[in-house]
Amino acid sequence: MTTSNAANPYKRKETFVYEFGGPIGALLTIIALPPFILALTYFASIGQISLDPADIYASSYSHHLPTFLKCFMGLLAWFLFQVILERFLPCELVQGAEIPNGRRLTYRINGHLAFWITILIVLCSFPVMENGRIQFTAAPLHLLYDYYGDLALAAIAWCSILSVYLYIKSFSSDILAKGGDSGVAIYDFYMGRELNPRLGSFDWKEFCELRPGLIGWAVLNMAFVVVQKEKLGYVSGSMILVNVFQGLYVWDALYQERAILTTMDITTDGFGFMLVFGDMAWVPFTYSLQARYLVDYDPNLGIYALMGIVLTNCIGYNIFRGANSQKDAFRRNPDGEDVKHLQFLQTKRGTKLLTSGYWGMARKINYTGDWIMGLSWCMLCGLQSVVPYFYAIYFCVLLIHRSARDDHMCQIKYGKDWEEYKKTVPYKFIPGII
Predict the structure, then answer these.
(1) Alpha-carbon distance 284 to 223, whole Å?
(2) Which of 267, 323, 386, 392, by CA, is between 20 and 30 Å from 374?
(3) Is the pLDDT of residue 366 over 90?
(4) Phi, psi for residue 201 in degrees, rounded to 5
């Protein structure tokens, strides 16, 4: 979808290419996502899909203002806690990719340490007041289960507030994201106008990409372990594995934090409602659906089924991590011992596109590994309900759409070199098939 803004001197003069259905698509997405998340959290709690809107509205959260306010304040405290860790823990200072004005921003890389400090505090160092004295114990994780819907609503509210702030702030910045500078307010609000919004040296986008939502997802999963143990007297194999699989996924992202500095989210997309909501509402409250479902509807899978699922996850992780590590190592030092043997296509821009190793098998082989891992999480919930399989369905659609975005941007960026690259590496996801 395209439009020309030449008739309006206050808008971009060149033709602008819209994504996600343009302004109407952006508006509908902004309206639809909040109730959709609340509905999903409710479906996980009842183990099935309800088609009764009144039932969903009445049961997805408490409708009790004091409860909502407590959840909202708790969520802000969580966000602030992660900011404090990011600001004051020891870090590695890393230069990001070059931005449009020719500069490279500096990022504080300490997410891995923040993850372990958070887990330590949650498990055994949570401060509580008893008899006038501060004691340190395990956090009351059961509250996250009790107020799951209200916490999701609080996250939606916080994301909306932050998105408004970032949109207003963007008008004082001269480094805008090309995809969020259409001149149409609702579309730019959704896509994000400013490329790298900062408060001093604090980078809003890089921080939100990995810290509060991703670590929050892991903590929610831990809460569901606690509650299942209280209800059943034991923790099931499926619950253990979903925590291990997803905990590994979160840990891996934080351990490899510097790798996100070259991703589309950081280098290309603005930081608006799309990413804010995705990072801090969508991720923790839709990615935790499997663990929430297992609290009350564990399928009691046998040992052979669990072993098969473990194998599936290992295959996916090996592809995902192997491909991403290979690409990151090649970008940092093409002459490194581990990657100097790889073949590549030299582009006119000076960039080298890998045509062997993982990246010689398929152009988006990392997406394939990522999806296989996600499917294994869903498989742990058995086949009694489609609800826990939402992730696999949604993620398949997301990765197909994202690969199309990548392809379009690379076509613009590399021109004929990209056509040559696609002839050399003809498959997108699965070697020899698609």
Answers:
(1) 13
(2) 267
(3) yes
(4) -95, 0
The Cα 386–Cα 378 span in angstroms is 9
Among 122, 111, 106, CA closest to 89: 111
Question: Which residues share a beta bridge with 29?
Answer: none
Per-residue pLDDT reduced to its tens digit, 235-277: 999 999 999 999 999 999 999 999 899 888 999 999 999 999 9
Handedness of CA 356, 360, 363, 365 (dihedral sign): negative
- Is the C-alpha dihedral spanning 381, 383, 384, 385 positive or negative? positive
Write the secondary structure of the chain as one string of H (helix), E (strand) and C (coil). CEEECCCCCCCCCCEEECCCCHHHHHHHHHHHHHHHHHHHHHHHHHCCCCCCHHHHHHHCCCCCHHHHHHHHHHHHHHHHHHHHHHHHCCCEEEEEEECCCCCEEEEEECHHHHHHHHHHHHHHCEEEEECCEEEEECCCCHHHHHCHHHHHHHHHHHHHHHHHHHHHHHHHCCCECHHHCCCCHHHHHHHCCECCCEECCEEHHHHHHHHHHHHHHHHHHHHHHHHHHHHHCCCCHHHHHHHHHHHHHHHHHHHCHHHHHHCHHHHCCCCCHHHHHHHHHHHHHHCCHHHHHHHHHCCCCCHHHHHHHHHHHHHHHHHHHHHHHHHHHHHHCCCCCCCCCCCEEECCCCCEEECCCHHHHCCCHHHHHHHHHHHHHHHCCCCCCCHHHHHHHHHHHHHHHHHHHHHHHHHHHHCHHHHHHHHHCCCCCCCCCC
Report yes or no on whether pTM surpasses 0.70.
Answer: yes
Alpha-carbon torsion (255, 244, 380, 42), positive or negative: negative
pLDDT above 60: residue 2: no
Could you tell me if 94 and 258 are in contact, meaning their C-beta atoms sit under 8 angstroms apart? yes
Which residue, 268, 247, 201, 216, is CA-closest to 405?
268
261 burial (CB, 10 Å; 0-12 / 13-18 / 19+) is buried
Say if strands 344-346 and 202-203 run parallel, antiparallel, or are unpaired: unpaired
Among 255, 159, 175, 167, smallest CA distance to 213 is for 159
Output the six-digit token pair for 175: 């480094």
Q: Phi, psi (5° rounding) for residue 344? A: -155, 165
